[in-house]
């Protein structure tokens, strides 16, 4: 069932939800939020688009299979965990740049860990839901 109202609403909601998920990702290493919550919101945006326009249409927007995000996210998270060991620090020690970036704030290894989690969550959620949707 394709609804014209849902398709029109999704056209506007997809970029807004993706922007909000990016906000949650950036906010996460200072306040509640982060990679997991941001990834869920981004996944919801694509699932909403899939409900309105069909899974095949959403897969065309993504341009690649969501399962490919999982190893990329795991690699980014692993690098951010192991990077402090190069400086003779324990794993998962926060490393921060000296100067803040105007809109984003202080950038450190926590942000890259959150980015990896963000990509893994999007990959896992969309892979599971799109697999279920395409099997029906």
TrEMBL record:
It is found in: Cell membrane. Keywords: Cell membrane, Membrane, Transmembrane, Transmembrane helix. Residues 5-127 form the Na+/H+ antiporter MnhB subunit-related protein domain. Its main location: membrane. The keyword Cell membrane applies. GO terms for cellular component: plasma membrane. The keyword Signal does not apply. It comes from the Bacteria. It holds the Pfam family MnhB. The chain crosses the membrane at residues 12-30, 36-55, 67-87, 107-134. Coiled coil: none annotated. It is a multi-pass membrane protein. PANTHER family: NA(+)/H(+) ANTIPORTER SUBUNIT B, NA(+)_H(+) ANTIPORTER SUBUNIT B. This is Multisubunit sodium/proton antiporter MrpB subunit.
